[in-house]
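Key result, reporting period 2: structure in, sequence out.
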């Protein structure tokens, strides 16, 4: 069977990203990727909200209870409840305490962390060769195609190279922790800072990367990741570091994500609609990330641009 037939899409999501997911899925159905199996995993308590998508052709709706190890899922539920009860500020303080004194444990199991585990679990276990992660805030244009992720002889990994001395903030943390887990020695001065989606996992190399974690720790790979300081590790960061540090250069094609575009300011719905419509007609643009602030930091409703864009798609 060819690699093209064994490519799947994976989207981890939750109630807070429901509106953006609606648009992503509608754009996918009108794109060159519509024939690919699409695995959507949502936090279990949000499953009913997404039930309307269960009958979509090619869509496999799963919950975190289906994907995560039972003990991890149990702590995830507790972490979500605690985070909701304590609020953003106290949750951040608890995360800082976990980094400083390794307590409390639950901030390492919040949705941001367990979504990453879901991506890795599905990408390493599904019947596929390539697993492409597509987040809920990505609009997929008609020009998107499977060739965006495939090389005849190598594993494709998108790359945006920056000088190591320019790294700061969360990216610097992700790179540092990822390279430590991957056993980096004499790391290059240039660093791949692409942490967006679409992101391609080659299953053979991903399994090797996860096995590497287990051999070095004698723990299951997900526990190794959960043992890292909260919000300091990245599933994409670790995979990229493994490719760079532990794989032969002939195995990987570092590909510039030239077909991706980004919209950061969504405060003007009309401007967002115009921008997406214009980009959608450009054959060089395959993916448009409309950055969501689903955690509540935005004070405008995303439906103001999402609903018109969905109507536009349905109208052809």
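The corresponding designed sequence is given below.
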């Amino acid at each position: 069977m060819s690699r093209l037939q064994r490519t799947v899409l994976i989207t981890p999501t939750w109630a807070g990203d429901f509106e953006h997911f609606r648009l992503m899925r509608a754009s996918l159905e009108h794109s060159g990727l519509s024939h690919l199996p699409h695995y959507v995993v949502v936090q279990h308590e949000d499953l009913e909200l997404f039930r309307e998508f269960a009958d979509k052709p090619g869509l496999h709706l799963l919950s975190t209870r289906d994907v995560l190890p039972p003990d991890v899922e149990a702590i995830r539920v507790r972490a979500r409840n605690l985070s909701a009860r304590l609020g953003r500020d106290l949750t951040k303080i608890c995360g800082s305490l976990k980094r400083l004194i390794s307590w409390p444990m639950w901030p390492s199991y919040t949705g941001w962390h367990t979504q990453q585990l879901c991506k890795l679990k599905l990408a390493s276990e599904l019947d596929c060769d390539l697993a492409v992660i597509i987040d809920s805030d990505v609009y997929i244009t008609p020009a998107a195609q499977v060739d965006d992720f495939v090389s005849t002889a190598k594993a494709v990994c998108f790359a945006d190279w920056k000088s190591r001395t320019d790294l700061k903030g969360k990216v610097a943390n992700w790179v540092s922790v990822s390279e430590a887990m991957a056993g980096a020695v004499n790391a290059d001065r240039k660093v791949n800072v692409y942490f967006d989606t679409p992101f391609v996992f080659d299953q053979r190399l991903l399994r090797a990367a996860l096995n590497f974690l287990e051999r070095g720790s004698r723990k299951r790979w997900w526990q190794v990741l959960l043992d890292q300081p909260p919000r300091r590790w990245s599933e994409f960061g670790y995979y990229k570091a493994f490719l760079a540090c532990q794989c032969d250069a002939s195995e990987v094609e570092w590909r510039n994500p030239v077909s991706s575009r980004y919209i950061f300011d969504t405060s003007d719905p009309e401007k967002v609609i115009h921008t997406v419509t214009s980009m959608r007609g450009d054959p060089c643009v395959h993916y448009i990330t409309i950055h969501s602030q689903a955690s509540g930091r935005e004070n405008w409703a995303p439906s103001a641009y999402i609903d018109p864009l969905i109507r536009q798609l349905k109208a052809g």
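Residues 70-101 form the longest helix (32 residues). The CA atoms of residues 160 and 194 lie 5 Å apart. This case is discussed further under Risks and Mitigation.
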